[in-house]
């Protein structure tokens, strides 16, 4: 009985390991990898930036950055599926666990568009600031970079 279970499970495990080793066609370019690593080196998850990043600029002294996506981007943010737009160029100031002076990310909520002005890390949560108003979401929802909708439709 135990033997037949192993024979059943073994091909299954093999199948899983094969399918996970298939390269992801949506893998970000090396450019976007470095922009995303700026996020992680300051305590932020990569999912705050879409996969497609054309170039970025960071002043290591002041933390001021500018991210060039190449084109405006529309996407859906987890976990509540808020519609968000990213301008072609995102600017702000990043320091450990805090992004301020943010410009270029807008979220649709309560029938209006809101510009996200800052993002903070608070324990396991991300705190999004819209002026004086804040909204808290578990950071684990942002472990993966979303793909821009509209521009290039990926088939998957
Ligand atoms: C980086 O920021 C510092 C401090 O604000 C400033 O003095 C410096 O000129 C900036 N460097 C560049 C290349 O903009």
Describe the structure.
- This protein is of the alpha+beta class.
- The chain is 20% helix and 39% strand.
- It contains two helices and nine strands.
- It has helices at residues 2-20, 30-41, and strands at residues 55-58, 64-68, 73-77, 82-95, 98-109, 112-115, 118-122, 125-130, 133-138.
- The radius of gyration is 19 Å and the shape is globular.
- The model is unreliable at 5-30 (pLDDT under 50).
- The site of 2-acetamido-2-deoxy-beta-D-glucopyranose has 3 residues, from loops.
Q: How would you concisely characterize the structure shown here?
A:
This protein is α+β, with helices and mostly antiparallel strands and 156 residues long. Helix content is 20%, strand content 39%. The protein has a domain at 36-142.
Q: Can you give keywords for this protein?
A:
156 residues; alpha+beta; nine-stranded antiparallel sheet; 9 strands; 39% strand; binds 2-acetamido-2-deoxy-beta-D-glucopyranose
Are there runs of 5+ residues with pLDDT below 50, and where?
A: 5-30
Largest sheet: 9 strands, antiparallel
Strand content: 35-45%
Broad shape: globular
SSE order in H/E notation?
Answer: HHEEEEEEEEE
Rg to the nearest angstrom? 19 Å
Measured as a percent range, the helix fraction is 10-25%
Mean pLDDT: 81
Q: Quick one: how many beta strands? A: 9
Which class do the helix and strand fractions yield?
A: alpha+beta
Give the cofactors and ligands.
Answer: 2-acetamido-2-deoxy-beta-D-glucopyranose
Specify the number of helices: 2
Pfam family, one: DUF538
InterPro entries: At5g01610-like, DUF538
Protein name: DUF538 domain-containing protein
Organism: Cynara cardunculus var. scolymus
């Amino acid at each position: 009985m135990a033997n037949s279970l192993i024979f059943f499970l073994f091909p299954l495990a093999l199948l899983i390991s094969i399918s996970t080793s298939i390269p992801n066609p949506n893998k970000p370019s090396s450019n976007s990898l470095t922009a995303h690593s700026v996020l992680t080196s300051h305590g932020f998850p990569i999912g705050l930036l879409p996969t497609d990043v054309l170039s970025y600029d960071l002043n290591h002294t002041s933390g001021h950055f500018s991210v060039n996506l190449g084109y405006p981007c529309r996407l859906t943010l987890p976990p509540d599926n808020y519609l968000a737009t990213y301008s072609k160029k995102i600017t702000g100031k990043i320091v450990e666990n805090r992004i301020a002076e943010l410009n270029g990310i807008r979220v649709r909520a309560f029938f209006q568009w809101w510009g996200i002005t800052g993002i903070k890390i608070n324990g396991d949560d991300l705190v999004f600031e819209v002026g004086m108003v804040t909204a808290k979401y578990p950071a684990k929802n942002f472990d993966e970079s979303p793909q821009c909708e509209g521009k290039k439709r990926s088939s998957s």
